From TrEMBL:
Name this polypeptide is given: Acetoin utilization protein acuB
InterPro entries named in the record: CBS_dom (IPR000644), CBS_dom_sf (IPR046342)
Keyword Cell inner membrane in annotation: no
Gene3D superfamilies: CBS-domain
Originating species: Capnocytophaga sputigena
Amino acid sequence: MTTHFLHIDPNTSIEEVNLLFEAHSLSALPVCENNSFIGVLRKEAVEGATKEALVSDYEYAFEHYFIPLTATWDAVVEAFALYQTDMLPVINEGGDFIGYYHLDEFVLQFIETPFIQEAGYVLILQKDTLNYSLAEVSSIVEENGGKLLGLYLSNRTENNVLITLKITTNRLSEILQHLRRYGYGILTEKEDDHYRKELKDIADYFEKYLDLGNR
């Protein structure tokens, strides 16, 4: 995943901040001091500010979301949705700013992964939150002659989780039977073409979201 090192500091003028928002098509920017991450400033927080104002004048509006350097791509997807942002700061264990992920670039990189590009079956499973196991799902698929292209938690509530996975197999019925035997409900079984169409719809949504956020 590509990271960008752009950030602002408390002494940056709001005039410069607004220029950066426009130049980099972002709705939020990371704020750092001596390379240490201290927060995120959203574009909407400084609307109507005077040109003489500084980032430090808006410290009360700083948000404190970020993603660790070790985060997997599925965790990044969840974070983009959770924080409703087009920019995710990446922080190392020492709290230093490493860079940020840009939503549109991340989506484009995700679409190029084998999870999307290779043909297969997409399954959405449901199980209670306390008893699911991604390792168990992987084993069921592989022990029944399937190949796992990817899986992630696509939703989580207090009682249940949804697991989305993509597999290649010529023994789909056996895999489904074993998943049910281990207590996994099969909510959806999608042909790959339908899933690709849904991904295109998601990509179109992201594009519209980014356009609206940067007007």
